[in-house]
Amino acid sequence: MGNLVAIVGRPNVGKSTLFNRLTESRTAIVSEVAGTTRDRQYGHVIWGGRECSLVDTGGWVVNSEDIFEDEINKQVEIAIEEADVILFLVDIMNGVTDLDDQVARILRKSGKEVIVVANKADNYDQHAYAAEFYSLGLGDPFIISSANGSGTGDLLDEICSRFKNDKNDDLEDLPKFAIVGRPNAGKSSLLNAFIGEERHIVTDIAGTTRDSIYTKYDKFGFAFYLVDTAGIRKKNKVNEDIEYYSVLRSIRSIENSDVCILMIDATRGIEAQDMNIFQLIEKNRKGLVVCVNKWDIMADKSKESIKCMEDAIRERFAPFRDFPIIFASAVTKQRIYKVIETACQVYENRKRVVKTSELNEYMLDCISAYPPPNNKGKFVKIKYVTQLKATTTVSDDKSHEEIINVPQVPSFAFFCNLPQWVKEPYRRYLENKIREKWNFSGTPINIFMREK
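Given the sequence above, the corresponding structure tokens read:
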């Protein structure tokens, strides 16, 4: 993971259609969780064994009906700052517009990997029009139709050929933590609180993944890496749309970590952007520790207000509720040791293996106490359960044959006669029963139904 591909271009050239085409038609998409409008603008693509993240820049522009030129230029500049490969989408029916010329000018100066993609070539007769795009000075245009998918395979081959080597083999097998959150939630203060300790050894290892810096800490009796996306940019260089920019930054840190420490500002509570970042963490199946920062300046620190805040956070992040919440202050260093200790515990929970005999003894009792509801007179009988190894690939059910890669999170396969009849509420019941018995706090769990 770690390669970031951004789609840029003026409005109505088909950015979202291309985004949907490249993500939804591939075999491994992290499930699309409904609930935020921003959700559709970030996804994973696997092609030829290579994996990358795809971002549709247009999705973050506020007034999409009436976009000003400087707004588009701003989006392009942010994409240039963050992405490894940029897809510059143009419309073959309209030819080169003034706005395309402006975007091309910025892209030429950037020295980035840019692929010109001529979209809306819905039939072969239109291919001849693509010659006009050579005038952009960005190499051969790739002719595609994101509506019917023609040319997208060749485009994906080209994208993958532009990736740098994305392995970090030189890293020790230590937990990797990312501190994420919206701007001003206190990420830098928390980092400084860690760095401010005298007793530590810090070594920076620049990952080959562009801009991920792994800072190794050996302190508090724990050894771990903090994942950070390298040096905060000069603010004047990118007139950034803060929200879009911080989400793009978070993607890289989240993907390269095992456990995410999500900072929430106690003075502001949960905001839409906290939800966006939480959904990135959930989509990538990462461990989660919520750190409510600035607790030192809250007037009401009673048990009731702590309980109220915890309930509000779990309510917003439902159905995933089993994660630790720590009330801390990066400035006074209150409970920052607890944050690291908890993140290490979540990392251990991710690797927890339950014996098959214990699993069956406990879970089969739970299932007989509350069997799956019958569907049109058909009864589901679950006979056996086992925990899958991290490398297993499974097909989720008979209705679609693709192979789903099990990420390195605890994954359980329940063998039964009619896997397709087991619906989401019952899977959640099974997951909750597993969580009640074994400590999987902070880590997602995969539940697969398999035909016996």
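The longest strand covers residues 212-219. Try to locate this feature in the token string yourself.
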